Fold this sequence. Notes:
Elements: H1 2-6, H2 12-20, H3 57-65, H4 68-78, H5 85-95, E1 104-105, E2 112-113, E3 123-125, E4 132-138, E5 147-152, E6 157-160, E7 173-175, H6 181-184
Antiparallel strand pairs: 1-2, 3-7, 4-5, 5-6
Amino acid sequence: xxxxxxxxxxxxxxxxxxxxxxxxxxxxxxxxxxxxxxxxxxxxxxxxxxxxxxxxxxxxxxxxxxxxxxxxxxxxxxxxxxxxxxxxxxxxxxxxxxxxxxxxxxxxxxxxxxxxxxxxxxxxxxxxxxxxxxxxxxxxxxxxxxxxxxxxxxxxxxxxxxxxxxxxxxxxxxxxxxxxxxxxxxxxxxxxxxxxxx
Length: 198
């Protein structure tokens, strides 16, 4: 209501002039389709840039930022598509000197592994049920019957109960794979003569 005091009321001539005036915004021009070229992009992909790239540093940076598994998946999925002869020849020449790393054998868990994929949680060995020894702790404690403890010789851990509680939580050994027999010893009940490795 307050703003209406300061504005001028429109007369009939102002309303007619407003409806006849043209907006000053650009509008698309109407082009007849007779003889005019199509403005839609071609259905085929644009040709590759002419000439050879002179600097491989950008490509090197891109490849170094991509995780190996992603690069592997991307490469193998695009090799399923039809490839022209020159691209196939270039890729074959590029990958001809590539050799996979050797597979190694872990003497602790007896799994095959690549050295590049060897992490702190790669080698996992479960507890050995044969090494469990049940021991009587006390005849009566806190109003209960006889209490037992189960000693797991493989890792030296102790669990309450007479073996019915299962092994201790986690793995008996969790760490890196190894190919060295001297470093493979992990069991608490192993000796120099018997490393308890299978």
